[in-house]
Amino acid sequence: MGKKRDQGKRTDLSISFELNGHNDGTLKLKQEGDHFYLIDAEGKTLTEVNAERTVSHERDTAKKGPKVRTKNGAAAGAISIGGLAELAKLDYFFAIDTNSKPFKGVKISVACFVALKLKRENEGYRLIPAGPAQLLEIYDCNDNPELAAILEIAIQELESQQQYNADHKFRVGIITDTELGLHNAINSRSAPVYKTQFLPEGFSLMYASSDTGNELPNTLIKACDKAATDHINRRSKHGFPPSELRLKSDSQISCCYFRTDLAIGDTLVPFLTISEDTRATITFEGDDGRIEIHEVDLS
User: Fold this and answer.
1) Does residue 201 share a domain with residue 94?
2) How many Cβ atoms from other residues are within 10 Å of residue 34's Cβ?
3) Of residues 184, 170, 214, 190, the one with CA closest to residue 52
């Protein structure tokens, strides 16, 4: 959203496992293809261990800490190097980005979002549109408008899922560049996603920066960012007529939907979309703190 892109910085990939009371001295790391697992002394895969994948780079000033490009979690004790396998396991996922600007004393926010699927193929993953991209105008939202839009998407998807297949437990990801520090709490339902409302079960947030990074989630967020910016600039020239439609996530907030010409076609995405010179490390997160295991060769 208009920020300086970080170029020429070393990329760091970190994969961490939460030991959840396990003794790291009895655990071994196992790699199969682009996936890492933890196995115990008997050779059994630990399926109750949570894992997290983070891609980042160092900032010019150390005071800010690393700049996170993408971040996602995985359950069942396994996580991929490329980060795409986790998206492919979902029924579908959304990418969303929101921009805001004042207009005649009213805060106008525009969220652009698109639904997609990933299907594994021999040479990578096939990115498949799961619905047309949409724009959601939100008027005078004093809270985080992107979180309001995320909850709105989840509520509408729940209604659609119940009509389509009420017996299936859908798993839906939402890629966003907002509130990274709250993602774990929102996904675990220990904190609300918007005001006092929690993210519905079956939905989870994933992080991707719109300012930097060249992985698939970054590319999608940047496309949504541009579409939202173009729309709000175009509409600002002619004004924003009042709308009687209200958010399902907040009946006090008026809104309006639009279609957008953003088109994300059927695309083949390689397994690994970060460079081979990326520094990759595996860490355990145990009761005694974080312990680095070793670096991983991506070449």
Assistant:
1) yes
2) 15
3) 184
Total number of domains in the chain:
2
- Quickly tell me which residue has 């983070």 as its tokens: 54
Q: What is the pTM of this model?
A: 0.91
- Pair 47, 181 in one domain: no
Domain that holds residue 28: 1-82+274-299
Distance (Å, rounded) from C-alpha 193 to C-alpha 241? 29
CATH number at residue 180: 3.30.420.10
pLDDT of residue 91: 97
For residue 156, CA distances in Å to 41, 141, 150, 247 come to 46, 19, 10, 10
User: Which contacts of 179-186 are long-range, i.e. CB under 8 A and separated by 24 or more positions?
Assistant: 179/144, 179/146, 179/147, 180/68, 180/71, 180/207, 183/71, 183/207, 184/73
Q: Which is nearest to 10 in space by CA: 294, 281, 293?
A: 281
The tokens describing 275, both together, are 């460079």
d(CA 251, CA 233) in angstroms, rounded, equals: 26
pLDDT digits (tens, 9 = 90+) for 133-167: 999 999 999 999 999 999 999 999 999 998 888 78
Please tell me which residue, 62 or 237, carries the higher pLDDT value. Answer: 237
Strands in the chain per DSSP E = 12-18, 28-32, 35-39, 51-57, 67-74, 78-80, 92-103, 106-121, 124-129, 134-139, 172-176, 203-208, 255-259, 267-269, 279-286, 289-296
- Identify whether the C-beta of residue 201 lies closer than 8 Å to the C-beta of residue 171: no
Q: How many CB atoms lie within 10 A of CB 101?
A: 13
Q: pLDDT at position 245, please? A: 98
Query: What's the confidence (pLDDT) of residue 86?
Result: 94
Asked if 36 and 47 touch (Cβ cutoff 8 Å), the reply is no
129 has pLDDT over 90: yes
CA dihedral 35, 36, 39, 43 (to 10 degrees): 40
Instruction: Verify that 206 and 289 share a domain, yes or no.
Output: no
